[in-house]
Write a structure and sequence with these properties.
The N and C termini lie far apart (about 145 Å). With about 280 residues, the chain is an all-alpha fold. The protein has a two-stranded antiparallel ribbon with strand order 1-2. The chain has helices at about 1-10, 15-80, 85-115, 120-145, 150-155, 170-195, 200-220, 225-250, and strands at about 255-260, 270. Helix 2 (about 15-80) packs antiparallel against helix 3 and helix 7 (about 200-220) runs antiparallel to helix 8.
Length: about 280
């Protein structure tokens, strides 16, 4: 009996061993906690650096977009100086100004966004891109009478990009929004051409704007982010109606237009003046 009891006593775990294991576990647990805290701290430090860099890039992109907008508007103003006597001169100057916008300001935007997820900053650069598209398509229509498509515009941006990086490409939504703004400028151009006696050119603009509106009417309801487009579609319809009404008025009331006295140019007319009053 005593021998069996002695063997059980020897087989029983020692209290000292329990304290030693407990001490080992208790000393190892704080080490794991400190390592976890350190990893969280490093992760959030990386997040902070990423967000700071993204915000700084956004500010640079906004500035580049603003510069593109300002200088693209200057190109549009230059095109509106056109008349039947200085068409080539004005359009050559507008094309040179547009090339300068591309080389100086669009290139800066490409430099900031190439090789990155540039879609994340679309809201920052979209206004400038839309204005640039409006200026480029307006120049092309006045020069060639055709619509500059998206592939042609993106092709002009490829030489500005580093071949080793993913190039910045204008997306279809910004192109369509810029195209919607184009119709407003074409409306102003058409009214100016009517006042200068170029009715046929105004009618050509009217047909072109009407075609754009008809195609976008079919496309706009299926666009995901179509809030801006819906607003611009209403403005586009007003532009179409203004051009149509102006052309219609000249046709219907054409008999009321008479040549100015002393002028051999039939495009310089007076409205509502009888022959015996000249």
């Amino acid at each position: 009996m005593s021998a069996a009891f002695h063997r059980l006593f020897l087989m029983a775990p020692k209290p000292h061993g329990l304290r030693q294991d407990t001490a080992l576990h208790s000393s190892a647990k704080p080490a794991r906690t400190m390592a976890t805290q350190s990893s969280f701290k490093n992760a959030f430090a990386n997040y902070t650096d990423y967000l700071n860099q993204l915000n700084e890039k956004r500010e640079r992109v906004v500035k580049a977009s603003r510069d593109i907008t300002i200088n693209s508007k200057k190109v549009i103003f230059q095109v509106h100086r056109i008349s039947k006597n200085n068409k080539d001169e004005v359009l050559d100057k507008a094309e040179k100004d547009l090339a300068s916008v591309t080389e100086q300001h669009v290139s800066q935007l490409v430099k900031e966004l190439q090789g990155t997820d540039f879609w994340k900053l679309r809201r920052a650069y979209s206004p400038g891109v839309q204005e640039y598209i409006e200026a480029a398509t307006l120049c092309n229509f006045c020069k060639n009478g055709t619509l500059l498509n998206l592939d042609e515009i993106n092709a002009t941006l490829l030489p500005l990009s580093d071949p080793s990086l993913e190039p910045l490409q204008i997306n279809i939504l910004d192109y369509l929004l810029g195209l919607a703004d184009l119709t407003g400028e074409l409306m102003r151009l058409a009214i100016g051409r009517i006042s200068d006696g170029e009715l046929e050119y105004a009618e050509k603009i009217c047909r072109f704007v009407r075609d754009i509106y008809r195609e976008l009417t079919l496309l706009a309801p299926h666009m995901d982010d179509s809030t801006d487009m819906k607003t611009k579609m209403d403005t586009m319809l007003q532009s179409v109606m203004k051009i149509e009404n102006a052309c219609f008025s000249v046709h219907v009331r054409g008999s009321e237009y008479v040549q100015l006295p002393g002028s051999s140019d039939p495009s310089y007319l007076l409205l509502g003046v009888r022959d015996n009053e000249i």
